[in-house]
Amino acid sequence: MNPTREQLTSYLEDALSDVETAQVEQALRQSDALRKQLRQLMEERDRGDHSVGAIWRRYRLTCPSRAQLGSYLLGVLEPAHHDYVSFHLQTIGCSYCQANLADLQAQRQSATPSGQERRRRFFESSAGLLRPAR
How far apart are CA 92 and CA 102, in angstroms? Predict the structure, then answer.
């Protein structure tokens, strides 16, 4: 594979699929000329592309926050917002947000103790501190 300038730009913006990203990285490992082209693109980008689209992508203005992704995971978002986050994750396929969501899911699965167990432990640890009813 010999990536085009557009593919390299998409690679820098993390806008390629996993397969395409792997292909570009493999090509970069094998070609000094391609690495040089990538460095030139990075320099051009760092000089300050100030178009609305570039700023929008760079600062991920359409991405939900991590807190919103957590609420999505818990199923507590309002329906319209839930639909947008679903669209962003599934249709747009934002790899940045998918990675955030996967991290939140992993944290949720590894969270111990469970909520009920935690409440029981809090109650047991504070039971002697409660005043009797008068």
Answer: 16
Count of alpha carbons within 13 Å of 57, Cβ hemisphere only? 15
Q: What is the CA radius of gyration of the chain?
A: 23
- Specify the pLDDT at position 109: 82
Q: What is the mean pLDDT of each run of 10 residues along the chain (134 residues)?
A: 88 86 93 93 76 76 94 95 95 88 88 69 72 67
| Residues 7/20, Cβ–Cβ less than 8 Å | yes
Secondary structure (3-state) at 110 = helix
Q: 53-73 burial by CB neighbour count: b if 16+ within 10 A, else e?
A: eeeebeeeeebbeeebbbbbb
Q: What is the DSSP string of 31-98?
A: -HHHHHHHHHHHHHHHTT---HHHHHHHTTTTSPPHHHHHHHHHT-S-HHHHHHHHIIIIII--HHHH
**Whole-number pLDDT of residue 132:** 67
d(CA 89, CA 66): 13
Global confidence as pTM:
0.53
